[in-house]
Amino acid sequence: MAQLKKVQISNQNWKKVKSDALVVGVFKGGGLSPVGKDVNSGFNGVIKTTIKNGDFKGKSNETLMLYTGGSSSRILLVGLGLKKQFDLEKLRQAGGTAAKILQGKDKTSASAEIPGMDALNCSAADATQAFVEGAILGSYKFLDYKTDDENQTVLKSLTIVGGGSRSGLQQGKIVGESVCLARDMAAHPSNVATPSRLASEARKIARAGGMICKVMNRDQFTKLGMGAFASVAQGADEPPKFILLEYQGGKKGDKPFAFVGKGITFDTGGISIKPSSKMDEMKYDMCGAAAVLGIMKAVAGLKPNRNIVAAIAATENMPSARASKPGDIVKAYNGKTIEILNTDAEGRLVLADALAYVSKHHDPKYMVNFATLTGAVIVALGHVASGVMGTDKKLVQSILKAGETSGERVWELPLWDDYCDDVKSKIADVKNLGASGQAGTIAGGAFLKAFAGETPWAHLDIAGTAWWDKDRPYVPPGPSGVAVRLSLELLNILG
């Protein structure tokens, strides 16, 4: 990965901090922070003159570079929008916007105030964390396979001036780097990000965080009775893995919080093969697993006072002489039989066994799964929000709140019995498709509900938010690392 690595706080006046550029936030209408006012005075009113002349409006994420002398050769103005509408998400966006602009070959260091911090009703730690998160995420570039020097410069250092929290900085750094790991795992091609590679990353995280890591191979999880997972994996030559991570930060005996990720490292559709157009994007079908790895990397650094378990069912979905066929019936870990009507609805099959296993063996207080499950969720919500449904009102409402706070927005979809009836099979317990052409995203959730047991559970369909080709303030085109920051916020909300 390539992203901003060095972030620090300086107690010195901004004039004494050398950098290639100084970042100053400006509200719509020209409002400046105390640091911004001082910078304006230090450069003969250049910021106010620029605003007065109409060259800069202060709209959200608007930017303008001013060239000056002094310790910083440039001033980067970043628009913050209306002061009364400014919040932590706008601050996060400002950090990302600034970092993206400061990626030129001759601009590798920056100094910055925390823009608009004085206008926020929050702690310095929260403000600092949001800004640092945004700066790290906005600076991210995936360069692992680039061999030329073109456009490879990344912002190397950021020094915060005019106040800030060192604890907030550390939090923001851990979270930002964890999201970047999730992005990296998704961005790697499927011949690199194999199930074995996911298992290797899980072991690294376990060593760093003092966790227990257990990895089951094909024979092991098949022998346990994970017939649904095994049915997807049986068409692949690449060895599948069932990956478990356990973090003990709470009291012994306390029920853990569980995260479960879909890890289809490449999805051809199997026998129900996909069209060739954009099939390359099916390397992203493991973004749920990538999110789980990112969450646990953050847990390793943040060390929350609670118990957490994570599970990933990782395999390719390939067509072969051994592959499952439409019409096959398999038995899941909880004993339920499944009629496979479409082998391209494979994510819910691997998740069925993972959810059933975690529910039985770990008895979680809450269980949340992440999956790029359906194209239907993009039809419903576009690329703006993930879909959520679940069996526990408190859990779902907490996810919605965490989504708003983190900027990773979520919209609830119903999980009524009517939809659950649609996934009942005439010749097995359930089928892996719902009513034809109807409520595809909800049908996926209704299917998974049958395997969550009595555990309070929620399903996030992130197919629309896990990757996109649009450039956003702190999310470049490609994988977003969605659900990492939301999940960390969820842990804070649920305590």
The CATH topology annotation of the largest domain reads as Aminopeptidase
Strand content: 15-25%
The CATH architecture of the largest domain comes to: 3-Layer(aba) Sandwich
Helix content: 25-40%
Q: What is the number of beta strands?
A: 19
Tell me the name of the CATH homologous superfamily of the largest domain: Zn peptidases
The strands making up the biggest β-sheet line up spatially as 7-8-10-9-13-17-14-15
Distance between the termini: 32 Å
What does this structure look like?
With 495 residues, the chain is an alpha/beta fold. The chain folds into two domains: 6-161, Leucine Aminopeptidase, subunit E, domain 1 (3-Layer(aba) Sandwich), CATH 3.40.220.10; 178-494, Zn peptidases (Aminopeptidase, 3-Layer(aba) Sandwich), CATH 3.40.630.10. Helices cover 35% and strands 19% of the residues. The protein contains 15 helices and 19 strands. The chain has helices at residues 34-42, 46-52, 88-101, 124-139, 166-187, 195-209, 218-224, 227-233, 287-302, 347-362, 376-381, 393-406, 417-421, 440-449, 484-494, and strands at residues 6-9, 21-26, 63-67, 74-79, 109-112, 157-160, 212-216, 241-248, 257-267, 307-317, 329-331, 337-339, 366-371, 386-390, 410-412, 430-431, 457-461, 467-468, 478-479. The strands form four sheets. Strands 7-8-10-9-13-17-14-15 form an eight-stranded mixed β-sheet, with helices on both faces. A hairpin with a 5-residue loop joins strand 11 and strand 12. Helix 3 (88-101) packs parallel to helix 4, helix 4 runs parallel beside helix 5 and helix 12 packs across helix 15 (484-494).
